[in-house]
């Protein structure tokens, strides 16, 4: 039990850091800082995932959340803006009202949630633990997460793969293939003018 | 009541984090920062799921005691097939391991694992849209975008 | 003369290791944390690092965008064809199940079919994820003007 207690203290530290980073993201207006803090947030939550025994998730969060997302957001930031405008007071209060209402509803639901760390809670009782006991006999792969991901829920993962493929398709349709210089590089200005004319026509 | 809340303390910071993300989504006009808020919200939801699957004193859901995990099932089936003593012993040992060690719930891990990757895919599409909006309108602040749309509409209304 | 000599030397050392680690994560995914999703991202990151340090032109020469495009579709195709293969490889009288890996190998006792199936499917995931992440990166980076040296 000592072990559990120690990880709990680690959890408190991580939670405090997550909260601090979250509030910093709210306060900051420099988009570069905001994007980098998002990466920090991802890394911190990856650390918490490790302490919650979700090593695969932690790995993915560290690679995807802190790596790729940050790179993509930096790229998008370079193409768009470096600073965000401050929020108006009206907007701030409206957002605060929504957040407080939604948060109160969620707090109201807390007593119905499964107890943290309880091995017998409904969340931990049925199908998840069945995977734990049947994987050695049916799949014979030590990492149960891989077994569930690729075999028991292979159909599900197939869908995810198609979703990712579709996302790439969408990005390529929106931004082009990225095959080097744009076709209209010489007359970028002319292209922009044409585009503006097009939007006007549409409107 | 206090005890009920204390047993579920982990949800409190997670809800606050979720609401932080939601606040950023609503209160900021900047589309990039809004997507940042969305991913903040998303990561907090991941945390919510994973904390539900945690078991105190549990291990990560990687079945322990075998670098030859492939042999574990093999042993069990071989034992059923021709009753080799060693294999039976091995299978029993593995079964023992599974019974004895507490593991955290692998199911939320699987769901969130795929959700993270799908999350970055949707984020990429969102950012691509923002980039196109910037190219078309020259701004990514939604007040300015609304104003531009409004002037376009009223300007070309015939 | 390169302005980022140290970065270039260090990343030249690092990139092969990142790729090897990616493949380790891929093929060790059955035994430890890892799998196609993580490995795909790590391999994509290796190319992205290369692109950041040596410039987009070099990266496009190393991994052409066309390859990336085909790769994204190929991975989905690998995954789907494993499923279709299991449909056809089932013995007579057995139910036909999409992605039922046991049909891939007659040896039911050792679950070899399952292991083959997971390996192939993860390979499909790896191909798609690595290609998609690179495709997205190329799409964004194709629009970013090269960062001037003074902004480094």
Description:
- The complex is a heterotrimer of chains A (203), B (158) and C (152).
- Chain A starts with a helix and ends with a helix.
- Chain A has eight helices and no strands.
- Residues 183-191 of chain A have low confidence and may be disordered.
- Chain A is mostly helical and 203 residues long.
- Among the domains of chain A are: 8-84, Four Helix Bundle (Hemerythrin (Met), subunit A) (Up-down Bundle), CATH 1.20.120.1200; 128-179, no CATH class.
- Chain A is globular and about 55 Å long.
- Chain B has two domains: 2-61 and 105-155, Helix Hairpins, CATH 1.10.287.3510; 63-102, no CATH class.
- Chain B is built from seven helices and no strands.
- Chain B has helices at residues 2-7, 11-27, 31-52, 69-82, 85-100, 106-137, 142-155.
- In chain B, α2 (11-27) runs antiparallel to α3 (31-52), α3 (31-52) packs antiparallel against α6 (106-137) and α4 packs across α5.
- The longest helix of chain B has 32 residues, at 106-137.
- Chain B is elongated and about 75 Å long.
- Chain C is mainly alpha-helical and 152 residues long.
- Chain C has one domain.
- Chain C is built from five helices and no strands.
- Chain C has helices spanning 5-27, 36-54, 56-62, 65-89, 112-141.
- The longest helix of chain C has 30 residues, at 112-141.
- Chains B and C meet through α4 and α6 of B and α5 of C.
In short:
With 158 residues, chain B is mainly α.
Largest sheet of chain B: none
Q: Helical region count of chain A?
A: 8
Radius of gyration of chain B, in angstroms, nearest whole number: 26 Å
Number of domains of chain B: 2
User: Which pair of protein chains has the largest interface, and what are the residue counts?
Assistant: A-B, 105 and 102 residues
Residue-averaged pLDDT of chain A = 83
Per CATH, the architecture of the domain at 8-84 in chain A is Up-down Bundle
List keywords for this structure.
heterotrimer, A: 203 residues, mainly alpha, Four Helix Bundle (Hemerythrin (Met), subunit A), 74% helix, B: 158 residues, Helix Hairpins, 2 domains, elongated
SSE blueprint and pairings:
The complex is a heterotrimer of chains A (203), B (158) and C (152).
Chain A (H helix, E strand, L loop, with lengths): L1 H26 L3 H21 L3 H25 L9 H21 L17 H12 L5 H9 L1 H22 L12 H15 L1
Helix pairs in contact in A: 1-2, 2-3, 6-7
Chain B lengths: L1 H6 L3 H17 L3 H22 L16 H14 L2 H16 L5 H32 L4 H14 L3
Helix pairs in contact in B: 2-3, 3-6, 4-5
Chain C lengths: L4 H23 L8 H19 L1 H7 L2 H25 L22 H30 L11
Helix pairs in contact in C: 1-2, 2-3, 2-5, 4-5
């Amino acid at each position: 039990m000592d072990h559990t207690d120690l990880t709990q203290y680690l959890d408190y530290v991580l939670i405090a850091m997550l909260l601090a980073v979250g509030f910093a993201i709210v306060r900051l207006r420099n988009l570069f800082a905001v994007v980098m803090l998002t990466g920090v947030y991802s890394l911190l939550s990856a650390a918490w995932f490790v302490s919650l025994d979700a090593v695969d998730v932690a790995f993915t969060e560290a690679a995807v959340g802190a790596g790729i997302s940050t790179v993509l957001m930096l790229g998008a930031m370079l193409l768009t803006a470096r600073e965000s405008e401050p929020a108006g007071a009206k907007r701030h209060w409206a957002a605060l009202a929504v957040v407080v209402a939604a948060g109160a509803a969620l707090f109201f639901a807390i007593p119905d949630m499964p107890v943290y760390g309880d091995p017998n809670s409904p969340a931990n009782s049925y199908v998840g633990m069945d995977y734990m006991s049947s994987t050695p006999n049916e799949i014979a792969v030590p990492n149960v997460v891989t077994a569930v991901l690729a075999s028991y829920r292979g159909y599900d993962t197939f869908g995810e793969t198609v979703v990712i493929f579709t996302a790439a398709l969408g990005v390529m349709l929106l931004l082009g293939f990225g095959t080097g210089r744009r076709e209209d590089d010489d007359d970028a200005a002319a292209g922009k003018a044409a585009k503006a004319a097009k939007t006007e026509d549409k409107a | 009541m206090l005890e009920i809340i204390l047993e579920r303390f982990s949800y409190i910071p997670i809800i606050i984090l979720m609401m932080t993300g939601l606040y950023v989504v609503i209160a900021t006009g900047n589309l990039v920062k809004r997507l940042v808020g969305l991913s903040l919200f998303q990561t907090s939801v991941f945390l919510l799921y994973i904390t539900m699957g945690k078991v105190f004193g549990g291990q990560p859901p990687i079945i322990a005691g075998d670098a030859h995990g492939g042999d574990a099932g093999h042993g069990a089936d071989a034992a059923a097939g021709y009753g080799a003593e060693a294999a039976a012993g091995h299978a029993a040992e593995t079964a023992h391991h599974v019974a004895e060690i507490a593991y955290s719930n692998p199911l939320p891990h699987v769901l969130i694992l795929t959700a993270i990757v799908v999350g970055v895919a949707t984020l990429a599409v969102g950012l691509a849209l923002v980039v196109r909006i910037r190219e078309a309108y020259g701004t990514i602040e939604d007040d300015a975008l609304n104003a531009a749309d409004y002037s376009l509409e009223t300007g070309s209304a015939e | 003369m390169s302005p980022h000599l140290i970065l270039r030397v260090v990343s030249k050392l690092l990139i092969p290791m990142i790729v090897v680690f990616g493949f380790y994560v891929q093929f060790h995914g059955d035994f430890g944390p890892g799998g196609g999703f993580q490995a795909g991202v790590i391999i994509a990151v290796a190319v992205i690092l290369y692109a950041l340090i040596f410039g987009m032109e070099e990266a496009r020469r190393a991994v052409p965008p066309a390859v990336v495009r085909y790769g994204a579709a190929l991975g989905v195709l690998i995954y789907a064809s494993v499923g279709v293969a299991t449909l056809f490889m089932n013995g007579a009288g057995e139910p036909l199940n999409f992605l039922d890996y046991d049909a891939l190998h007659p040896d039911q006792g050792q679950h070899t079919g399952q292991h083959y199936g997971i390996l192939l499917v993860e390979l499909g995931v790896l191909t798609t994820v690595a290609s998609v992440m690179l495709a997205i990166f190329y799409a964004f980076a194709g629009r970013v003007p090269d960062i001037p040296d003074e902004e480094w």
